[in-house]
Every structure is written in C-alpha cells, then in structure tokens.
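Extended Data, panel c. Modelled sequence:
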Amino acid sequence: MSQLEVVAYKVLTAGQMDILLRDGVFAGAPIDLADGYIHLSTAEQVTETVNKHFAGQTDLHVAAVDLAALGDAVKWEPSRGGQLFPHVYAALPLSAVTAHGPLARGSDGAVVLP
C-alpha cells in the first residue's frame, strides 16, 4: 500500500448511499460521526473492512472516492494492525465519488470494486 494512492473506497448501506445521491453529500455513518472522520479503505483493505465491520449485512454499496478531489481533508493514519488508512475530515461530496455500485464479491470472496 502506498500513500500515493489516489482512489479509496467507502462502504455504505443502501440508506446511506441514497442520502449521498439525494443530498449530494454524506456527513458520515454513525461510526464516522463518533470518530470525527469518514473511514475509507484502499483497494487492498476493502474486503477485510467488509468482512470485519459489515459481516452479515446485505444491501451494501461501495463508492470509489477520488482522494485528490478532497485535498487536505484526507489524512493517512494508522489503524487496524498498524496499516495506514485514508480518513476524511470533512463531509464526503458526491463530486468526489467517481463510481459506485452494489457490493459484489468475486469467486475468491474479494469485494469487486466499482
């Protein structure tokens, strides 16, 4: 993983995805609001994120986020196992979302990215 990655991923419930599409901005899931930033994952981290934090949930969506569009609001910080994760210290605007779709998994169980 590299801090130079320019795309990260946000896992959203169907209701949260609806809010993002309707309002053009997403303030965050309950855990985001509690922590003070929006949690994102890199392509390499997103499957583990879904397995750990969304186990058993259905009707999930994945949004690809252009980190460059968020500028200084993005901070790379250590989290799970010391890995660096992109955290967004601002609301997530729809304009920074480059693709999105229902969460799907490949034959190997990995999350298929939009």
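The mean pLDDT is 94. This feature is highlighted in the accompanying rendering.
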